[in-house]
Specification:
The complex is a heterodimer of chains A (299) and B (310).
Chain A lengths: L1 E11 L4 E11 L3 E5 L6 H8 L6 E6 L8 H4 L3 E4 L11 H11 L5 H9 L14 H13 L5 E5 L7 H15 L5 E5 L3 H4 L5 E6 L2 E7 H7 E6 L4 H5 L5 E5 L2 E7 L3 H5 L2 E4 L3 H9 L7 H12 L1
Parallel strand pairs in A: 3-7, 3-8, 5-6, 6-7
Antiparallel strand pairs in A: 1-2, 1-4, 8-9, 10-12, 10-13, 11-12
Helix pairs in contact in A: 4-5, 5-6
Chain B lengths: L11 H7 L6 H15 L2 H20 L3 H9 L3 H34 L2 H4 L3 H4 L6 H42 L4 H6 L2 H19 L1 H13 L4 H20 L3 H11 L5 H7 L4 H4 L2 H6 L1 H23 L4
Helix pairs in contact in B: 2-8, 3-5, 3-8, 4-5, 5-8, 5-11, 8-10, 8-11, 8-17, 11-12, 11-17
Classes of the chains: A alpha/beta (299), B mainly alpha (310).
């Protein structure tokens, strides 16, 4: 079963093309990380998926057209769009009352149990809570909703490292159960690395890279090349090369690890390094070229 | 594939609790209205505070009550009634004014504030349609505020009357003079008719216009609410030398001097004799107003759907 399917999804604003005809398929039970620089079109793509904005092209979310059937869709889809969107005037107990009142899949006991582990008082207003507590409250509400698709757009922006860690731990341990699908966008790539089953890079409205994390581990290799092998290693056409402490680190796509091992220490690149290799190099090139070039590289 | 097939409930209780229950439209509407009351406490605190002030002022004024009533008893019946009923009418007027002020500020912020603080993203993450939300917001000035104002006014007037009765009976002035001139039940019926017929349904196009502006404006909804009608009036005056638009607005706001409604409002001395609910319900002005209101609301629903947070 497909959770999200897009063909030629496009969204243009007055002066910019935010999403430039992307094709996307997310199977149920996956945790997809959508990663890209600011202004890459991630949030616009997610807004289209959530039925918050009209779009061109074909898009089905859980088999529904999100723009026309948003109200129906929201029974099965949950999202945290920003850390700061809980209304500041609402009390914790009111937020629970309200969601319990309107959402058929909300399990209040579950939300209460999650909140009991925090120091959030039921009578507090959101404006009295710290940013981390607001995120905890929002997560408590969202996790108590038995949704099939959860969309998180920068869910931990501005939180300190403890809250961020806790957030993803709760998400994985208490929420994810392989029948749900989760889509996450974030700038803090390293924190979601171990959580994801799939990775997708977006740049200038296009998907420039997509891979499952297993494939990523088997295809991509980073070699800490010894100086004497540098020329030979470069001859194998690495995707990128960078210098760390005077040593060259070359990133290879699809080259056999055995062969690479003779140049130096081989390891699996972090998503952040891969991201820099894929997106960082292409900063000066026009979007169309970026896409075709990297699609080739990714396959 | 069902959502539940792979889920491993940690306890039997939990699995029962997560089974989707159906939530009726009425229930969603109820919670949507409650949410408005949580956010905008002025809806009930405003009228309550004003009622408190009225009662406080009245309490002080009753120091001279028996003297005033004795003086009023010397007047002819018409003036006598006016003199005795004056504080009750004043209370009514104050609470109605509070209702209008609260309603105007509520409407201007209703669909604007949630975009400004981005909380609209939270509301939209829940299965409540834009139509439901806008209708719930429109029901505040058209249904909730008039009902609450009615209740508060009747209770206030009743309290005033009880207190006066107590004061008069202590000082030995005949209480009948008071009760004959302040007929609470007919007054309440007249008030109900006036609140709903005139200030709720009659004003509905204004409230819906304000809601539309608050869904549309990126800043200063108050200015945007005033400018277009003003512009239409000015252009009409300059282009044709007429002021039909201004007259229409004036009749809406202050009542049409020719209508039965206006007679009721102007001559509230004996409201029961002036009630014509049938005539009111059949009047084209009412239905034209409601049609315009519906159009404004439909536009507000569309705007809430498409507009981004500010």
């Amino acid at each position: 079963m497909t959770a999200i399917e897009a063909r030629g999804l496009r969204k243009a604003f007055k002066t910019t093309i935010a999403v430039d005809g992307i094709n996307l398929r997310v199977a149920e039970g996956r945790i997809l990380g959508l990663i890209g620089p600011n202004g890459a079109g991630k949030t616009t793509a997610l807004n289209a998926i959530l039925g918050l904005t009209p779009y061109q092209g074909e898009l089905r979310v859980l088999g529904r057209d999100p723009w026309r059937e948003r109200d129906q869709l929201m029974r099965d889809v949950c999202f945290i769009s920003d850390v700061a969107v809980l209304p500041r005037w609402i009390r914790v107990s009111q937020a629970l009352d309200y969601v319990a009142g309107v959402h058929p899949r909300f399990d209040r006991a579950k939300a209460e149990a999650f909140l009991a582990k925090t120091s959030i008082a039921r009578g507090s207003r959101v404006r009295e809570l710290s940013k981390g507590m607001v995120a905890q409250l929002h997560l408590a509400v969202v996790m108590a909703i038995d949704a099939r698709l959860l969309v998180l757009d920068e869910p931990t922006l501005g939180l300190d490292i403890l809250y961020r860690k806790q957030f993803y731990d709760s998400l994985l341990n208490d929420y994810f159960d392989r029948s749900r699908t989760i889509v996450i966008t974030t700038h803090q790539v390293e924190e979601v690395q171990n959580v994801l089953t799939d990775v997708m890079f977006m740049n200038r409205g296009r998907i420039v890279f997509e891979s499952s994390t297993e494939e990523l581990e088997s295809r991509y290799a980073e070699v800490l090349v010894r100086p004497e092998h540098l020329a030979a290693a470069r001859a194998l056409k690495p995707m990128s090369e960078r210098q760390v402490f005077g040593r060259s680190i070359l990133l290879f796509n699809g080259t056999e690890r055995q062969r690479l091992a003779s140049f130096g220490e081989v390891r699996t690149p972090s998503i952040a390094d891969l991201f820099v290799a894929v997106v960082g190099d292409q900063a000066g090139q026009p979007p169309a070229q970026v896409s075709t070039h990297l699609r080739g590289a990714a396959q | 594939m069902s959502t539940h097939s792979n889920a491993i409930p940690t306890s039997p209780l939990e699995s029962r609790a997560t089974a989707p229950i159906d939530i009726s439209l009425a229930q969603r509407f109820y919670w949507s209205v409650r949410r408005e009351l949580w956010e905008n406490r002025s809806i009930y605190l405003g009228p309550l505070a004003v009622a408190g002030l009225i009662l406080f002022g009245f309490l002080i004024s009753t120091a001279h009550l028996s003297r005033n009533i004795r003086a009023a008893l010397l007047l002819d019946p018409m003036h006598q009634q006016a003199a005795i009923r004056q504080p009750y009418n004043f209370a009514e007027l104050m609470l109605m004014a509070t209702f209008l002020i609260v309603a105007i500020f509520y409407c201007l912020d209703a669909l604007y504030g949630e975009r400004r603080d981005r909380s609209i993203l939270f509301w939209k993450s829940l299965p409540v349609s834009d139509l439901m939300t806008v209708l719930a917001k429109a029901s505040i000035p058209i249904l909730v505020l008039p009902l609450f104002t009615f209740a508060v006014t009747v209770v206030t007037q009743f309290t005033m009357l009880l207190w006066s009765t107590l004061v008069l009976s202590v000082s030995g002035v005949p209480v009948a003079a008071l009760w004959n001139n302040v007929p609470l039940f007919p007054m309440a019926v007249g008030l109900f008719d006036h609140l709903f017929g005139f200030h709720a349904l009659g004003y509905a196009p204004f409230y819906c216009w304000l809601l539309l502006v608050s869904a549309w404006a990126r800043r200063a909804p108050f200015i945007w609410a005033i400018l277009p009608p003003l512009a239409i009036g000015i252009v009409e005056k300059l282009a044709f030398g007429t002021s039909y638009f201004a007259t229409i607005l004036q009749h809406r706001f202050l009542g049409d001097p020719q209508s039965a409604q206006f007679q009721t409002a102007a001559n509230s001395m004996d409201p029961l004799t002036h009630l014509h609910p049938g005539q009111f319900l059949l009047s084209p002005a009412l239905w034209v107003g409601l049609a315009i209101s519906a159009a404004f609301l439909a536009a507000a629903v569309q705007l809430r759907r498409t507009r981004d947070p500010i």
